[in-house]
From TrEMBL:
Keywords: Heme, Iron, Metal-binding, Transport. The keyword RNA-binding does not apply. It comes from the Bacteria. This is Hemoglobin-like protein. It comes from Chitiniphilus eburneus. Pfam families: Bac_globin (PF01152). The keyword tRNA-binding does not apply. Belongs to the truncated hemoglobin family. Group II subfamily.
Length: 129
């Protein structure tokens, strides 16, 4: 875990290009995996804007440039997700897509475990039903 203290997860992943790859693969999986149909239905047919916003958010969340805050202000994650019913099923669908997207990106085991824990905590925090 020492590497996690010396470098940000953003740097350890490989920066902008890899974060963008993670975001795109996440949304591609959400759109094609029938197990994620519930959360996919909550999104607009054109995912271009949400992909960009999620990339901007993840950039800062992972310790890279604070793009989301610069362009949109504080993320206010729960408030932004409140219009959507998010329970255990939706949380689990989201995590399924994110963990699969992460599995396709080479990274150290310690980083993967750190991110899985952080994504799980955050996804669980989004539950509102």
């Amino acid at each position: 875990m020492n590497d996690l203290q010396e470098q940000t997860p953003y740097q350890m992943l490989g920066g902008e290009a890899v974060v963008r790859q993670l975001v795109d693969r996440f949304y591609d999986l959400m759109a094609t995996d029938p197990r994620a149909a519930g959360i996919h239905a909550m999104h607009a047919a054109d995912s271009t804007a949400i992909r960009q916003k999620f990339f901007e958010f993840l950039s800062g969340w992972l310790g890279g440039p604070q793009l989301f805050i610069q362009r949109h202000g504080h993320p206010r994650l729960r408030a932004r997700h409140m219009p959507f019913p998010i329970g255990e099923s939706e949380r689990d669908q989201w995590l399924l897509c994110m963990f699969q997207a992460m599995a396709e990106i080479p990274m150290e085991t310690a980083l993967r475990e750190h991110l899985e824990e952080a994504f799980t905590r955050t996804a669980d925090f989004m539950r509102n039903t």
